[in-house]
Amino acid sequence: MKLGPGKLLSYALWQLRRHKLTTCCSMSTKAILCPGQGTQYIGMFDDQWSKSNILREIVKTSKDILGEDVIGIGNDGPLSKLSLTKYCQPAVVLSSILTFEHLKEAGDLQHASIKAIAGYSVGELSSLYMAGCISFENMMKIVRVRADVMQHASNAHNTGMLTIQGIPKEKIQELCHELNSLQTDSKNHVNIAIEMYPMSTVIGGTVKILDGIVERGHPLLKEPSIKLSRLPVSGAFHTPYMESAQEGLNDILHKIEINTAPLENPDFKVYSNVTGKPFKSTDNIRDLLVKQICEPVKWTNIIQDVNLMFKEKKLDSILELGPGNNLQSILGKINRRAIRVTQSLDLNS
């Protein structure tokens, strides 16, 4: 069949994108990183998924379970809607899964080559799916409930999140304790939410306290080298402000099956955000997933362990699958050599 100029160009661009994905992947040993909320962007879903029966079925199933056209919201926005927790969490997870399945279908990624999988925040669910611990249908059911209950918890309090760079985690913990002791309202507090990498920590709390921190009134924050940046979120995730979301998440988790058999392989790691260590087959994964929304993400521990695997030559390459390149950037803060073998890929790559 003869193709017109427009279709020829479209086909050529598709082949070029596929070549870029193919060249990054072989039977070399790999770690996979799955991003979390905040990496979403308008146009995040290329039409690549529509060319595959497998990917089309994934999109259809996700739409049936979510009751929302996440692909449409991710492509067309508006950004204000996509940035809402109830939409961006499933959008980010779906992007990771579609990229993962696309690479597998193309023969560019073999499961036997994967030695470690780590997901950041909601990306932890993506990692458990990729590991074979949770089916796609059950994962999307969990994501739907998780996003809804966390959105509801966020709406109940005027809270936010703030990144502090240039101060050890221990000093930030002391700062949080001190600020909390000064509050007359017990509902007004701040806590460590994410341990990103050494000297970079995210805290979550009321906007009132965060505003005070940004004004740099505390002696600990006077040094110009210390960087403060607000996160574009409307909730204090991974802090006690999410406690009201735990019951709903716990309910759905106890209705789905979790397969722990893949975790019995001593040469295969899937990391827990709560412990900062690989899940064990004996772990109560449901409890850890419930705790995760209220407890700090120990990403520093996770990424340091992945880096150690690379230094010990147990990994040849690292793939960040999903929107953005945040996790690749964090890895680069720890080891510049590791970033040379790391690629961030989604269907737009």
UniProtKB/TrEMBL annotation:
<dbReference type="GO" id="GO:0016740">
    <property type="term" value="F:transferase activity"/>
</dbReference>
<dbReference type="InterPro" id="IPR014043">
    <property type="entry name" value="Acyl_transferase_dom"/>
</dbReference>
<feature type="domain" description="Malonyl-CoA:ACP transacylase (MAT)">
    <location>
        <begin position="33"/>
        <end position="349"/>
    </location>
</feature>
<dbReference type="Pfam" id="PF00698">
    <property type="entry name" value="Acyl_transf_1"/>
</dbReference>
<dbReference type="InterPro" id="IPR001227">
    <property type="entry name" value="Ac_transferase_dom_sf"/>
</dbReference>
<protein>
    <recommendedName>
        <fullName>Malonyl-CoA:ACP transacylase (MAT) domain-containing protein</fullName>
    </recommendedName>
</protein>
<dbReference type="InterPro" id="IPR052760">
    <property type="entry name" value="Mitochondrial_malonyltrans"/>
</dbReference>
<dbReference type="InterPro" id="IPR024925">
    <property type="entry name" value="Malonyl_CoA-ACP_transAc"/>
</dbReference>
<dbReference type="InterPro" id="IPR016035">
    <property type="entry name" value="Acyl_Trfase/lysoPLipase"/>
</dbReference>
<comment type="similarity">
    <text>Belongs to the FabD family.</text>
</comment>
